[in-house]
Design goal:
Oligomer: single chain
Low-confidence stretches: 369-406
Shape: globular
Mean pLDDT: 91
Number of helices: 12
Radius of gyration: 24 Å
Largest sheet: 7 strands, mixed
Strand content: 15-25%
Length: about 400
Amino acid sequence: MKSEMKRFLLFTPGPVNVAKNVQMAICKGDICHREVDFDYLLQSIENKLLKLFEIKHIADYRAVVITGSGTAANESILSSVVGNKRILILSNGEFGERLLNMSRLHNKNTFLLEFAWGERLDLEKIEAYLEKHKIDIVAMVHHETCSGMLNPIEKVGALSKATGAMFIVDGVSSAGAEAIKMEKCHIAFCSSSSSKAIASYPGLSFVVGKKEEFEKLKNISAKTVYLNLYKFYHFINTVSQTPNTPAIPLFYALEQALINILDEGVSIRYTHLKNKARFLRNGMLELGLKFLIDQKDMCSVLTTVYIPSHINVGVFRKKLREKSIIIYEGKGCFKNKVFQIGNIGELSFDEIQFFLDSLRGVLQSFDRVETKKMVSNDDHYPLITYMKKNVKRESLIPTERIWMKN
């Protein structure tokens, strides 16, 4: 089986291993972005994005595609939508903090309601804050990748609507894996990326939004040139193009990745990813590993796992890399405490099982005992096994005793 595997198995939340037809799509013929060929390509992508989001009233929404990562889409929204209004950022992790930093750069009336990394958003605190303060816009991350937490956009969207606030969602690592009901959740704008659950290459992002909200941007002074969201909307709305030169090969790849999802069926894709996540998590639980957050709070994109206290994360990742397996390690307050395993992209159940088998072996390699020759008058005493001082007795994998003869 090993010889048939990819050079690297990307067990990450993005970039991911892409399908063969996506690899082929990026090699399509050269076209000019100011010709009708690109017009058709962009229209095709937009239509498929709106279908991915399962929007019922498609005529009321548009999707613009930006050459840039998911952060580019987020900054496009935050630099274009707020103006002089008051925006509240809800944060419970690294990417909520990133939204905050971008908004503070562009918008003087930026406010923060902060929760600890990996902590659930407290809906009562959010409701109380919105009732007490005049807030025009609420922005939050759907899937907080630093912990794997899936935040409740439907409930926060309802609270935003109740107080008359616009609702913005960072769906960079959830679109393509979790349902994002734009209409039901009262979302004005949602960002995402090509390289995560949608399973294309990095380098493109997009914003799906209500047409009426896009139109309002015309009256807000632009704060950036390249990431002017209204300009992206104006170009796709009038000439079906992008304002600047796009990365055309990546557009072809994104189109094919969207075709793959729609051919499979959006709800079937979601179920398939949930089944892969469940298979992966059950396998890790059987190894005695513990998760950072409750499974009921997890997105189906990745799992955040406590690293056993006697294991160095860097060495751990290196050992997995030697088996062509790439994983994430924790960031910020989770650094050296957790590792992260994604299950999106072209990863089969067989490859997930290969990962679990490899993981077992790597964990065992840290738990093995060392041997030390005991000094004695008799040179024929067996070598006696002993544990490293920093290895706790609650070993995850039963330790194998090693006896040797001099």
